[in-house]
Each structure stands twice: as C-alpha cells, then as structure tokens.
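Task card 7
Instruction: Convert sequence to structure tokens.
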Amino acid sequence: MKPMLKSRKLANVCYDIRGPVLDKARQMEEEGHKIIKLNIGNIAAFGIEPPDEIVQDMIRNLPAAAGYTDSKGLFAPRKAVVHYCQEKKIAGVTIDDVYLGNGASELITMSMNALLNGDDEILVPAPDYPLWTASVALAGGRPVHYVCDEQADWMPDVADIRRKITPNTKGIVVINPNNPTGALYPDSVLLEIVEIARQHQLIIFADEIYDKTLYDGNVHTSLASLADDVLFVTFNGLSKNYRSCGYRAGWMIVSGEKRHAQDYITGLNMLASMRLCANTPGQLAIQTALGGYQSINDLVAPTGRLCRQRDLAYDLLTQIPGVSVVKPKAALYMFPRLDPKIYPIEDDQQFAYELLAEEKVLIVQGTGFNWIAPDHFRLVFLPNSDDLREAVGRIERFLTHYRKRAGR
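Output:
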C-alpha cells in the first residue's frame, strides 16, 4: 500500500522535551527500569500539589461545567485576569481583550496561526521554550533565533535582535522569566526591546508563565506595562505558579496599540470560536487562584522547597569539573554548560541517550531548546532533595566516565 505521510507542515517542527529520548525512557520503563525524570516541569509528578482551594472550588462547580462557554471564556475568570493586569500595571485591558485557553500552549499556537503567512518571520530567543519555534513553523512562518548571552546572565542580545530584523519580521518573542535558563530580565533590557518593537512596528509576544516563581526577592515586570503604543500579546496561566499543569488553564491578553491590529484580532476571534471554548473546569480554577492565598511565595522563599532545591542543584552541579551554571533567578530549571574542552560532545541528543542508558537519568539536550551548540542541557530541579542528590550524583558519575573515555 502507498505509505501515508505526515503533513509537510511538520517538516521543521520538533518538541524534544517529549521527543525521541523520552520515547527511549518509556521503553526502558516498560522493561522494568526506574528512570529519574529531569526532563519536564510536570510539577505534580514531584509531589508539589496545587492550592487546596482551587481543587475544592473545581469540585464544587463541576456539576455545572458540562456546557460550552463563550468562545473566549467565562466572565468571572476573565474579569479576574483583568484585575491581575491592573496589579501588573498593564493599562487599558478589558474583558474583551482576554482569551482563556487550554493552557497557554494552545493560545501561543493560536496567536501564530492568526498572524503568519509564508514569508513572515518571528524573532525567537535561543535558547527558547521550543513550543515557540514549533508554533511559528507550524503556522507557516519562519522562526529566526536571536541569541541570549550566557556571559551576561542569559540576557537577550539586543544588538543581535536589531541585526536580525528584516522587512518580513512581524514580532518578537520574549520569554521572561526564561525557560530554560531561569533568567529574569531587568526593566532596562525590556525597555530596549520595546523601543525596537516601536521603531519597526512589531508585535511583542510576552511569555510570562513563571512571573511569580521568583527567588531571592526578585521582582517581575510585565512587558506590556511599559508602553501603550506597541501591540503586546501576553501569555500566562495556572500550570506553574499554581502547580496545576493538568488543569490546562491559561490566558492570553491583547493590549497596547490595538487600533491598527483589528484584522489580526478578528483572526484571533475566529480561531477562538473554531475551538468552541477552553475546558470549563479549568476555567473555574482561575478566579480562585488569582484571588486566593499565593502559596507560591512560600515555595520560593529562602526556606521554601523550590528555593532550597534550586540552591542544592546549583551547588551540586558546579562542583563537577567542567560544568558551569548561571544561577536561576526564576522558574524551575537551570541550563548547565559542559566545557567543550573537557566534554567534546558532537551530538548532544546522543549524549542524552547515553546518560539515560548508563545512569537511568532523563534530561533534555540543549539543542532541543534551539541552542546553537551541543554543550548544554536543561535540568528540572523539582525532585525532593534526596532524589535530586541521587540524580546529580548519577550525572556526575556519568561525566566522570565521559571524561575518561575522552582522555580528559
């Protein structure tokens, strides 16, 4: 029979966080191996639960959650998002500017599909959360990666952004706080990006899903709070700050210079209507989450679990010869560098395979985040301290053997 081939639209789409190395890990689990998974920020899998009031509110309202909602979402959670915008100093947001989605991921894809044609380009950071690159490609556009500078605490290289703008550039993606590096951008950098968008009439797509997962007293500034003459599309949700990944409750906010974007907004409305609505039980958690006790603050405090595990992972990794890490200021990840002089890695996916096979530890290679060289990997520091020590100990043992095999 004639083979049934996947769409050509998928030729440049990949998502290695759940890619071939994970498939190998699943096969090993089926064979009876126990794998330590440091590949994905699936918070509940590590015993960190969502706030109880969110769970209880969903349970109470579930009997009334069987019907479709408005295509943009229920009134009350969208109103709660408007109030959150006011807290974040994002001006001029009304309920009509808020779209609820099945997680921020669905809305990211929607925002690209509503905008891009074949020759259009979107500037995406390197490294990035790979859904962004994939969504641009799937929508028929071209992702163009600007570099974040590890020597400058992973700040966006503003000069590189300027160099890569062409007549086909439609927007700039900013992931702040950043996944995978854990970087948090100061207002000075954000204002430079806003000025670039202003000069070139670009849309800023602001991924702020980790805006409350902040350490060491750091404060997050929403990009859309810094101007009203640039079009901003801001993404957030419950998955990370409220440990509710599986509820698939996210939101997208259109703000700033909307007068010249009415046709694009019409496209967003069309796509929102085509999917009918986001899941209703997840929507029901949003108002309670945003208005309730912010228990994330306890987790990121100096004595909190997430902060302690960040510090532990950083200390353990930086003790390994040839491994360096920029200490994360936010989010749930770190992006260690393996000195190429000590670890001459040519294929970092193969490196991840070998680590998995030899030590039963699952990580994601740096090129899976569209990084430019095979010398990094992302590590999730969500496991409890004992499991984290075990995992990094296995990585250290593997790297010791790797150095010996390489004669270093």
